[in-house]
């Protein structure tokens, strides 16, 4: 068996040692004679798995006891509704920054529940640049300020945390969480669909400042009420036990790599190499303002779109998988999350270089 380099945006590659450990433990977790998948979520064994995963996540991210950490279901997209239902009071308003497709989805969903003010938009730049915060039309009365630190599809990433004053800052960190150090004390709520940097799809990890609990509207579905989920240790119903376990293995792996500081170094190096190659080669292009180029998702185009299919076919043949760009933007996209080793980026650059020489 040989493992390919999988550049998929999500579900994305997982660290190979994590998959190997999961395989070893598949039939018999720690001498229990059971797979984790078969365990009661109320059992001592699973509660230990769950609590360890939460603690490791807190350690890695630097999340204090002022926050509840929730392991919820329905992916990041379910949070687009869960957030306004919990934090946007009837008659209130929320501020949103529009930097691309995921921001837009969050905005569209929140608009179903109340007044949404789009306080800044990257649309004028074709989603290649982030407007100066001094020009954002934020309101001190907003229930919260929502933004998307990394736009997974466009490859546009903030290199700063916006200052929201006393307004709670809410961030969709799905494709950037644990990729670099972040001061989590600046946020009221962060959420991340697991399938980019944490584990299997379906799971969504939420960290919410405890003073923001208990504000859900009356009609909020119980399963979407942060306070209920927090009070029940994310076990109001049966949680996504196996995904939670696998996320725990990823957290242990991240700790063994040296944590987010060490990951940030590797991630910066991987991104610098790939953008550096793209910039130095006339055959490839990336349109994003250099300062805001994503470390995790690198979209690029070929000089001639007619060569896209051939490029992808050649990449597949070398075990460089899922490089096709999102249907909405075309071209290519290399997602290089924590689990993508530097050697995978090197292999991609070698192939891109050869392809440009032959066909450019
Ligand atoms: C992938 C992604 C989502 C959607 O995640 P689901 O788990 O499929 O709902 C939302 N926001 C961002 C930034 C993403 O990258």
Summarize the topology.
Elements: E1 5-6, H1 16-24, H2 44-61, E2 67-73, H3 75-87, E3 93-98, H4 101-110, E4 115-121, E5 145-147, E6 150-151, E7 156-157, E8 169-172, E9 189-193, E10 203-209, H5 226-231, H6 241-257, H7 259-280, E11 284-285, E12 297-302, H8 308-317, E13 320-321, E14 332-335, H9 342-359
Helix pairs in contact: 1-6, 2-6, 3-4, 6-7, 7-9
The structure holds pyridoxal-5'-phosphate (PLP).
Catalytic activity: 4-(phosphooxy)-L-threonine + 2-oxoglutarate = (R)-3-hydroxy-2-oxo-4-phosphooxybutanoate + L-glutamate; O-phospho-L-serine + 2-oxoglutarate = 3-phosphooxypyruvate + L-glutamate
Family: Belongs to the class-V pyridoxal-phosphate-dependent aminotransferase family. SerC subfamily.
Pfam family, one: Aminotran_5
- Sketch the topology as an H/E string, one letter per element: EHHEHEHEEEEEEEHHHEEHEEH
**Rg over alpha carbons:** 21 Å
- The low-confidence runs, each spanning 5 or more residues with pLDDT under 50, are none
Our estimate of the beta-strand percent is 15-25%
Counted beta strands: 14
Strand order of the largest sheet: 2-10-9-8-5-3-4
Distance between the termini: 34 Å
Quote the average pLDDT. Answer: 97
* Largest β-sheet summary: 7 strands, mixed
Keywords: Amino-acid biosynthesis, Aminotransferase, Cytoplasm, Pyridoxal phosphate, Pyridoxine biosynthesis, Serine biosynthesis, Transferase
Cofactor: pyridoxal 5'-phosphate
Subcellular location: Cytoplasm
Subunit structure: Homodimer.
């Amino acid at each position: 068996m040989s493992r390919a380099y999988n550049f998929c945006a999500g579900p994305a590659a997982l660290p190979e040692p994590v998959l190997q450990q999961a395989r070893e433990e598949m039939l018999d977790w720690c001498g229990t004679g059971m797979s984790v998948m078969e365990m009661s979520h109320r059992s001592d064994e699973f509660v230990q798995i769950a609590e360890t995963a939460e603690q490791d996540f807190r350690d890695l991210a630097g999340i204090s006891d002022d926050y509840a950490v929730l392991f919820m279901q329905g992916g990041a997209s379910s949070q687009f509704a869960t957030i306004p239902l919990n934090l946007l009071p009837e008659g209130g308003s929320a501020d949103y920054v529009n930097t691309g497709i995921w921001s837009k989805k969050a905005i569209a969903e929140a608009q179903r529940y109340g007044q949404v003010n789009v306080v800044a938009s990257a649309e004028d730049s074709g989603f290649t640049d982030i407007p100066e915060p001094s020009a954002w039309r934020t309101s001190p009365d907003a229930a919260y300020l929502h933004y998307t630190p990394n736009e997974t599809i466009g490859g546009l990433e903030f290199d700063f945390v916006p200052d929201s004053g006393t307004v709670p800052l809410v961030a969709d960190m799905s494709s950037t969480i644990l990729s670099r150090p972040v001061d989590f004390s600046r946020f009221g709520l962060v959420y991340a669909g697991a399938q980019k940097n944490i584990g299997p799809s379906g799971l969504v990890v939420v960290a919410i400042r405890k003073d923001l609990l208990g504000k859900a509207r009356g009609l909020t579905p119980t399963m979407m009420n942060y306070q209920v989920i927090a009070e029940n240790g994310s076990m109001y119903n049966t949680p996504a036990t196996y995904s939670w376990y696998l996320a725990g293995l990823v957290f242990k792996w991240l700790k063994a790599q040296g944590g987010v500081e060490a990951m940030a170094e590797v991630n910066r190096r991987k991104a610098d190499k790939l953008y550096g190659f793209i910039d130095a080669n006339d055959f490839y292009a990336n349109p994003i303002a250099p300062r805001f180029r994503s470390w995790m998702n690198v979209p690029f185009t070929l000089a001639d779109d007619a060569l896209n299919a051939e490029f992808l076919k050649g990449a597949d043949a070398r075990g460089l998988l899922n490089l096709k760009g999102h249907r909405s933007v075309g071209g290519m996209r290399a997602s290089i999350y924590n689990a993508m080793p530097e050697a995978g980026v090197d292999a991609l650059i070698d192939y891109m270089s050869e392809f440009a020489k032959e066909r450019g």
